[in-house]
Specification:
alpha/beta, 2-enoyl-CoA Hydratase, Chain A, domain 1, eight-stranded mixed beta sheet, 21 helices, 16 strands
């Protein structure tokens, strides 16, 4: 005989199922995670989302594996919490992996839950936040992992350039699963409690005989300074989630919108005379370009991206006159501001991210050229440097260049002139622009005279001075419309904001159809 249903019994069953899902791997494991200095998967969602806004999806989904005793290891939710809600009033999709459930490992059901919200994020044109804390593929499920993990890569790739995807590594993120985070627009890593790598220390030791710790192989320090994988780092889980909020504030909901305008509390016509003392006019003296950027942007607020990687190039977000802008700037404090392999990769990626999400770009230029050397040439500086050219040419957002002191050689197109697609190009009176510097140019142009005159050094110095006065001044470039104007440093902020305002409605004519370009790699 069929059991008679009652509302009380059915609702009690539902409450019990929900309570079981919320317990994750059990209170003991949850507490152990807290003792490690980590928040639990649900605590992370509660912290970052607006109170009461989170709606969970597929809360009761379970894996269907029966092998290796897995039929006795079932947990509602299958080790990942997925859903949607709001952050500071903005709609987002989010998932948070639960390391207390089977190590947060990714099986078919776990992966399917993530695929689903990634797909919905794209269809609804809403950003997605990915909180990773997983031991990787669940080996008990065998080739079902192809569905579970590979489907994540596919959905991440389809989302790319349509909705912002922000990944945070808040524990382990190993094996193939780490590629999903790498396919996101931004990769944030928590220091000391998180690790990201394809193959772990044990496998490396067995295969290559190398011994390395988890931290030295895939910790936040390594990925933020050496590999360039991590865009940002955080001291703990809360700072990581706060960083996501701050980053999201500079991004639009999707590629069809622009970032939200901020309230203007810093006068758009504010003078910046302090830049004259901040930037030495002597070319060989150094300074920190980040100080210049903070001086010209609204309220000195600048969110630097990849701040500890390829520090000879500065990239990051700020507001000017309330508008979100992306900065790409040489930093003479490191490598003299030269471009190299790593800075080319860093710059081109950031340029394309800004272009995808309708964020205008400002280049602050002080570059002697590309870094010379056998190591750079053998490392492929040709193809890496070409990425910068490709990214600038491909970008259709407003692009503005401000040349502070120098711009030489192949770095000229790599940092911004009209001929690579820039809308506005300005220079300070101190700026020097030329394909080759004065002294090497004179040595080539006057090599016969230098070999025959009585005092070659005096002759060289005289000709160098003549060459500098004739060709290296910004007025030479202005006379040929290479630049649009020579700007007093105190007017830098005002001029940049003016250019942003006039170019706000920029609409390029349709380009010739192509499936996609072939970017140098």
């Amino acid at each position: 005989m069929r059991r008679k249903k009652t509302w009380e019994a059915e609702l009690s069953k539902l409450r019990a199922k929900e309570a079981e899902a919320k317990r994750g791997g059990g209170e003991e494991r949850l507490q152990k995670q807290r003792e490690m200095g980590k928040m639990t998967a649900r605590e992370r969602i509660e912290y970052i989302m607006d109170p009461g806004s989170f709606v969970e999806l597929n809360m009761l989904a379970e894996h269907q594996c029966r092998d290796f005793g897995m039929d006795k290891k079932k947990f509602p939710g299958d080790g990942v919490i997925t859903g949607y809600g709001t952050i500071n009033g903005r709609k987002v999709f989010i998932y948070s992996e639960d390391a207390t459930v089977l190590g947060g490992s990714t099986g078919k059901t776990h992966g399917a839950k993530i695929h689903y919200i990634l797909k919905l994020a794209r269809e609804y044109l809403v950003p997605v936040i990915c909180l990773n804390d997983s031991a990787g593929a669940r080996i008990q499920e065998g080739m079902d992992n192809v569905y579970g993990i590979t489907g994540m890569f596919y959905q991440n790739s389809l989302n790319s350039g349509i909705v912002p995807q922000i990944a945070a590594i808040m524990g382990a993120c190993t094996g193939g699963a780490v590629y999903s985070a790498a396919l996101c627009d931004f990769f944030i890593q928590v220091e000391k409690t998180s690790h990201a790598f394809i193959t772990g220390p044990a496998v490396i030791k067995e295969v290559t005989k190398e011994e390395v710790s988890f931290e030295d192989l895939g910790g936040a320090r390594v990925h933020s300074t050496k590999s360039g994988v991590a865009h940002l780092t955080a001291r703990d889980d809360r700072e990581c989630l706060d960083t996501i909020k701050a980053l999201l504030d500079y991004l639009p909901q999707n590629n069809l919108e622009k970032p939200q305008l901020g309230k203007v509390t810093d006068p758009v016509d504010r003078k910046t005379p302090e830049l004259i003392d901040m930037v030495p006019i002597q070319m060989r003296k150094t300074y920190d370009m980040r100080d210049v950027i903070r001086t010209v942007v609204d309220n000195g607020e600048f969110l630097e991206i990849q701040p500890r990687f390829a520090q000879n190039l500065v990239t990051g977000f700020a507001r000017m006159g309330g508008r979100v802008v992306g900065f790409v700037a040489n930093n003479p404090r490191f490598l003299g501001g030269c471009l190299d392999i790593d800075s080319s990769d860093k710059g081109s990626r950031f340029i394309r991210t800004c272009d995808a999400f309708n964020i205008p770009l400002i280049a602050m230029v002080d570059v002697p050229g590309f870094l010379p050397g056998v190591r750079q040439e053998h490392g492929g500086i040709i193809r890496h440097g070409a990425k910068m050219l490709y990214a600038w040419a491909e970008a259709t957002v407003p692009k503005i260049s401000m040349i502070l002191r120098k711009m030489y050689g192949g770095a000229i197109p790599a940092m911004g002139v009209h001929q690579i697609g820039f809308d506005h190009v300005f220079a300070w009176p101190s700026a020097e622009m030329q394909m080759v510097g004065a002294e090497p140019s004179v040595k080539i142009l006057y090599r016969r005279e230098l070999a025959s005159v009585d005092d070659p050094q005096a002759f060289l110095e005289k000709k160098v001075e003549e060459y500098q006065d004739l060709y290296l001044t910004p007025y030479h470039s202005a006379s040929r419309s290479v630049i649009d104007g020579v700007i007093h440093p105190k007017d830098t902020r005002k001029q940049l904001i003016s250019a942003l305002e006039i170019s706000e409605g920029k609409a390029e004519p349709p380009r010739q159809y192509r499936k996609h370009g072939n970017m140098p790699l």
